[in-house]
Design brief:
Elements: H1 3-42, H2 48-87
Helix pairs in contact: 1-2
Length: about 90
């Protein structure tokens, strides 16, 4: 196994992690920004108002994108098994 192969595997794994985390992070960011703007406009500074909508939004994003996420993981693992088979001893 050469250094290029190992770096390629790590690069693919990191990009997969970014792709899988991005939808939930974007959902939390947009919900948090919306609530922050509403709190600034109404001058209601309640800390618990931000947690529940973010938790619900992230959960809904996770539920909606779970099949896509599972397919991405399956594709990554299939490519890993192909790489293992191609290494040869």
């Amino acid at each position: 196994m050469t250094q290029e192969i190992v770096i390629g595997i790590f690069t693919d794994a990191i990009w997969l992690a970014f792709k899988l985390c991005a939808p939930m992070l974007i959902a939390a960011l947009l919900i948090g920004l919306t609530i922050a703007i509403l709190q600034a406009a109404t001058q209601v500074q309640e800390q618990t108002m931000t947690f529940a909508p973010k938790a619900i939004g992230v959960t809904l994003a996770l539920l909606a994108l779970a099949p896509w996420m599972i397919n991405q993981i399956i594709d990554f693992m299939n490519s890993m098994f192909e790489r293992i088979a191609n290494v040869g001893f």
